[in-house]
Amino acid sequence: PPSNPPTTLISHLSFGSGMLRQLALLSSSLLTSHTSGFVGRTVGRALASPPSNPPALATMSSASATSASAAAAAVEDRPYGAWESPITSKAITAGSVRLGGLHYSDGELYWLEGRPQEKGRNVLCRYAPDDAGRSERDGVDVTPADSNARTRVHEYGGGAVAFGPAGRVYYSEFADQRLRELAGGSDRTVTEGGDRYRFADGVVTPDGKTMYCVREDHADPHPSRVVNEVVAVDLDSGDMEVVATGNDFYAAPRLSPDGRRVAYVTWNHPSMPWDATELRVVDLGGGGTESGGHELVAGEDGDTSVIQPAWSTKTGDLYYISDETGYYNLYRAGTEGTILPMEHDLGGSAPGWALGQQGYAFLDDGRVAASYSKDGRSVLLVADVGGDGKAVDVVEYGSDDGLPMMFGGVTPGGEGGVVYLTGGSPSTPTSVYRWDMERRDPATILACSSSLSFPEDVISTPELVEFPTTLGTAFGYYYPPKNDRFQSSDRAPPLLVKAHGGPTACTGTSFNAGLQFWTSRGYAILDVDYGGSTGYGRDYRRRLRGSWGIVDIDDVCAGARYLVEKGLADGDRLCIDGGSAGGYTTLGALAFKDVFKAGCSLYGVADLSALAADTHKFESRYLDGLVGPYKTDEDKELYKKRSPIESVDTLNCPILLLQGAEDKIVPPNQAELMHDALLKKGIPTALKMYENEQHGFRAATNIEDALDSELSFYSQVFGIKNVPGMIELKVDNL
Fold this sequence. Notes:
The protein is an alpha+beta fold. It has eleven helices and 37 strands. An eight-stranded mixed β-sheet has the order 29-30-33-32-34-35-36-37, sandwiched between helices. A four-stranded antiparallel β-sheet has the order 2-3-4-5, with no helix packed on it. The chain has a four-stranded antiparallel β-sheet with strand order 6-7-8-9, with no helix packed on it.
C-alpha cells in the first residue's frame, strides 16, 4: 500500500493513503547548501533554491542572525541524537495543514485543506484575501464547519469535490459518503442510500443537471462483491443511471465538449492502474452500458498503463497519458505514437493511487501545460498540441524562470499565461503559487500550509544520490545532520533510512518537518527510492514484479551500507522506518538481513498471507504482481517465506510498531501478531494502537505521539542519554 497525493508535512504520519506515501509538494526559500563533505555520486547538486517570495520557513531576523554569529564560537558538543531542536512534534502540527486539489473557475481559486487540529478533516477553501473572515492563508471555508470532504472509493479516495455552473459545488461527505450540493449558502444532500454508495472523480455537465462519476457499491461489503461503475447522477433528484459497468475498476470519467461521449479508464484484477488499463469511450446516445461494447481507444495489448484522459475544448480531441514508450508520455487519440516523446514520466509522482489525478492541463489558447521531475527538480512543459502530428513550440520552464523548485497540480488561471500550482523546496512547507509564464517573475505565494518558522541553521538540505545495488543502481535523498548550535565528537551519526509506501510510489524533496525533526537532533536520513519506485520509467517501476520483499530490501540495505562506507553513518546505529508497504520493507529488512539495529513499522504489513486474504477490493490482488498468485500450496509457501511474521527466529533487533485501530487496508491484527511473536522471543519491542485512526495518522495528537515515541525508542535502544524532550515509552524486553 502507499503513503506520497500532493502534500504532506509529516512524512508517512500526516495524511494516510495506504501503501502510497503521501506525495508531498513543497515551497521555496533561501537556504545555503550544506554538503557535509558528502562523497559518492550526487546527481545534480544539493537541492537548495533561491527565494520565490517570502514567507519562507527558514527565516532569521537581523537580531537572530547577530545572536547566531555570536554563538558560533560557543558551539556545544553533544552526542548525535541528543541535540536540542526547535522542531518539536507539537510545533509541527500546531500551525500546519495539508494543501492540494487546486481548482480555478469563474474567476475563483479553490483548494482543499487537511487539518490535523480538526481531527484531520478535509475542507474546501476559496481564495479571498479581502474577506474579513479570511484565514491566515487568505482563504475562507466553503464546506460547512462539521463536514469532511473525503471519499472512500478505493479507500484512498481522491476526486471528492466537483464544480458545477453558477458557483455550485458538489462533494462527498466522509461521514455517510453521500453526495452533497453547496449552492447559495445552502447544503443539500443529493444522493440517498446511507453509506451503501461511494462517489468520486466526478464531472458536472455545463447545464448543471448531471454528474458523471465513479460509483462504488457496497451493498455487499465483501471485497470480491463490491461493484465499481461509471454512473450519471441526476443532481436534482439524486437518481442514478449506469453508464459503464462489467469491469472491476473505473476511473477518470470525462465528458466530451459536445456532451455526447464519456471517456473513462478501466481495468480488471489482478492488474493495478500502473500495470495495465484500457481507455474506452461510450456514446451517450445509445452505446450500452457494458464496457466490452464501448470503443477501445488505448490499452489493447493488455500490458500498458493508460491514465488521465482529457478532452481539448479547442479541438474536441481526446488526450491521455500512456507508458507505451517505457515512460508516461502524452498521446492524442487517433494519432500514432506519442505526440510529446521524452524519457521522463508525466502524470505526477505516483499516478493511479488516488482518483482525480491530472498531470497536465489545457491553457485557454489550447496549449498543453504539464509538469515532470528531473534530478530532484520540477519542470513545467508547455507545448502546442493542436495539430495532427507531434507537439510543436515546446518550451520548458524551471526555477530559473521564477517557479518554485518542486511543484505539481498545474491549474490554468484563465488570465493568459497565468497558472496556479502547489510547490516549494526542501526548506519550506507546501504553498499555493500564482505564476505568469509571460512575465516570468518569481511565483507569488498565495497560501502557505504552515505558520512554522524555524531558523535556517537547523534545516538540512537533501542531496540526490545514486548508489550500487543488486539490479544496478538505486536512488535516494541524503539529509545530513544539521543544527549549527551543536557538534559531535562521535565518529559518525546514527542513520534513519526511510522506506516509502506504495510500494509503487516514490519519495521527494518537498519540505518535510518530520524529516527535519530527526536531522536537527543529530540523525542522518536516507530517503530511498528503491527499485519499483515511480518517476524513473516503466522498467525501474517494474523491478518489483514478483520481487517485493527482495529488491526493495536489497536497495534500502545497499543505501545504508553505502553511506557507512563513506563515513556518513554509524554502522552500529542504523535504523529504518516506513509506513504501510514501507513498513513491510522495514520489517523484511530486519527479519531477512543483518544490516539494521532497530526499526519502526507504521501500519506495516507483517503477514503477506493475511494481507492477501483480508484487505479492501482495490489492493486485494495487488500481491499477484508483487509476489505472485495465491492459489496453490507452492504459492502459499512463497508468501509465507516472504512474510516477516514467519521469520521471527531470524530477528534479533528491537522493533516499534505503530498502528491505527480502524485500519481497513492493513488490519490491526498484523501489528498485534508481530508484537506477540517479538514478546515471546524476548526481543525489545513496543506496540502503540491509536484509536479512531485508519491507514495513516490524521489527528494531531497521534501524529505528535508517533514521532515522539519513535525518538524515545531509538534513544533507549542506542543508549543515547539526556535527549531533550524525550517522552516515556515502555519498551518490553529491553
